[in-house]
Amino acid sequence: RAATPELELGALNVGSRPAKRNPKGGVESLRAIPWIFAWAQTRLNLPAWLGIGAALEGALAEGRGPVGKEELCKMYQEWPWFRTTIDLIEMLMAKSDRTIAQHYDERLVADKELLELGSHLRERFEVTEQSILAISGHSAPADDYPALQRSLRGRKHYIDVLNVIQAEALARLRAAEAVGATTGYDYMTTKDALLLTINGIATGMRNSG
Fold it and tell me: What are 111-119's contacts with CB under 8 Å, separation 24+?
């Protein structure tokens, strides 16, 4: 929650239900769609790949488990459902950017343990990406979709700027809320800027998670 705009998504008029069942609650109070949307905003796309890397890493390691690299590669070539699943994860990883996600952590997260968790998650992202590419045989995510790669490269520079602006807006809004300064012109214009970045990033990435 500290590293994403998950709490602030409630101010955006999307969906028919609140972003959280209880804004002060824990994980059990989260709603799935805003939670996934929040991670897509920070470009980590965490729910799309978390856990997959650990499962594939074990299978790809020699002599571990009933299914190895050869079987997984064969499944990718011959089983349409498995290929589609791997390709979808690969596409979302092509849209991800660990450097941008790290910027959110550095700008918004003060707790040392949470910063360490963020670093660990980015390391798991790299492991997952390597495992996915080992199965697909691609040299980079979305290698089979050159048009998508060109499109992402063309949009990246604009979206990166929106991410930096969003992280700064979140930092300023939260600082103002911490001291109860939520009625002034600066607060309201910063809130408007945040909502524009949320829309802009979702449009630029062409997915909301």
Answer: 111/2, 114/2, 114/3, 118/3
Nearest to residue 49, comparing CAs of 98, 11, 2?
98
What is the residue-wise DSSP string for 8-55?
Answer: GGGGS--SSS-SBSSTT--GGGB-HHHHHHHHHHTT--HHHHTTHHHH
Measure the CA–CA gap between 63 and 168, rounded to whole angstroms. 48
pLDDT digits (tens, 9 = 90+) for 110-167: 999 999 999 999 999 999 999 999 999 999 998 888 888 889 889 999 999 999 999 9
Per-residue confidence band for 188, with pLDDT thresholds at 50, 70 and 90: very high
What is the model's pLDDT at position 41?
A: 94
Q: Which residues contact 69 (CB under 8 A, 6 or more apart)?
A: 59, 60, 134, 135
Cross-strand bridge partners of residue 20: 30
pTM (global) more than 0.90:
no
Domain boundaries, the chain: 8-205
Beta bridge partners of 30: 20
Contact between residue 23 and residue 35 where contact means Cβ atoms under 8 Å apart = no
Q: For residue 101, which phi and psi values (nearest 5 degrees)? A: -60, -40
